[in-house]
């Protein structure tokens, strides 16, 4: 009897593992594979805009001329902003040409860092933090509320092209968990912003979406009116006075 229960459990674990491995494979395939399509192929012309060419020069000036390859990440970031939030293969090739390296070196970077998108995203790309502190403070409910409200799956774009929802790992804001980031590609690289919205609830996350839709300006940072930045809710309870200055020797008295 016990052996039968144990073997049933083993079977269930194997099935769960197989399901999650399939999901993981399809996710990593989406991130790392390139298949030519009409709007994403090496024959598609792509170059930095006139305004961004000046920024490219400025970025390159931060590195020694024999280390131009160090500029790959900021240049990919600029290319992604210019291209509405994602990097077609021809944009990566343009970056490779600017820094004088083989395109594969640029593909390696773009497919390694999750802030680079290899397929289309919405004008507002919402990134829900899925790491432990945010998760135990309700990030899954926030993601669910966003996906339900927008009627999309994770990494899908809404029909009007305005929104997409992705996931990120810890964005260094755990003290105000749960949080999301909104990458705003609605105004090209000139108007690009990447703002954190913290201390979120599912209701507030949906309100933020609707405010973005109306083009309203949102106050980034904590969404809890009882907190100031990362301070305790309701105000400080310690360190209420100015700290004493450090003790200094009176050198005249020595
Ligand atoms: S876990 Fe979400 S910001 Fe650190």
Automatic annotation (TrEMBL):
Q: What InterPro entries does the record tag this protein with?
A: NuoE-like, NuoE_dom, NuoE_N, Thioredoxin-like_sf
Q: Which residue stretches belong to region Disordered?
A: 214-254
* Alphabetical keyword list: 2Fe-2S, Iron, Iron-sulfur, Metal-binding
Cofactor dependency: [2Fe-2S] cluster
Gene3D superfamilies recorded for this chain? Glutaredoxin, NADH-quinone oxidoreductase subunit E
Task: Tell me the CDD domains matching this sequence.
Answer: TRX_Fd_NuoE (cd03064)
UniProt cross-references to SUPFAM superfamilies, sorted A to Z: Thioredoxin-like
Per the record, the similarity remark reads: Belongs to the complex I 24 kDa subunit family.
Record protein name field: NADH dehydrogenase [ubiquinone] flavoprotein 2, mitochondrial
Question: From what organism does this protein derive?
Answer: Hibiscus sabdariffa
Q: What is the lineage of its organism?
A: Eukaryota, Viridiplantae, Streptophyta, Embryophyta, Tracheophyta
């Amino acid at each position: 009897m016990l052996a039968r229960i144990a073997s049933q459990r083993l079977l269930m674990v194997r099935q769960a593992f197989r399901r999650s491995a399939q999901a993981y494979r399809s996710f990593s395939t989406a991130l790392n594979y390139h298949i030519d399509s009409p709007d994403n192929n090496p024959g598609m012309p792509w170059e930095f805009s006139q305004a961004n060419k000046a920024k490219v020069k400025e970025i390159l000036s931060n590195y020694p001329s024999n280390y131009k390859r160090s500029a790959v990440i900021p240049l990919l970031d600029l290319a992604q902003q210019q291209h509405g939030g994602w990097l077609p293969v021809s944009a990566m090739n343009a970056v490779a040409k600017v820094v004088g390296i083989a395109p594969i070196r640029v593909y390696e970077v773009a497919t390694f860092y999750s802030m680079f998108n290899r397929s289309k995203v919405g004008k507002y790309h919402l990134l829900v933090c899925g790491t432990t502190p945010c998760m135990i403070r309700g990030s899954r409910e926030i993601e669910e509320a966003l996906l339900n409200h927008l009627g999309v799956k994770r990494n899908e774009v809404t029909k009007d092209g305005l929104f997409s929802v992705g996931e990120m790992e810890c964005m260094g804001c755990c003290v105000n968990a749960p949080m999301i980031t909104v990458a705003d590609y609605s105004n090209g690289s000139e108007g690009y912003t990447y703002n954190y919205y913290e201390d979120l609830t599912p209701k507030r996350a949906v309100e933020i979406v609707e405010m973005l839709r109306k083009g309203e300006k949102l106050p980034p940072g904590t969404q809890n009116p009882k907190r100031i930045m990362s301070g305790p809710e309701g105000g400080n309870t310690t360190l209420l006075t100015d700290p004493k200055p450090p003790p200094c020797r009176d050198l005249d008295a020595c």
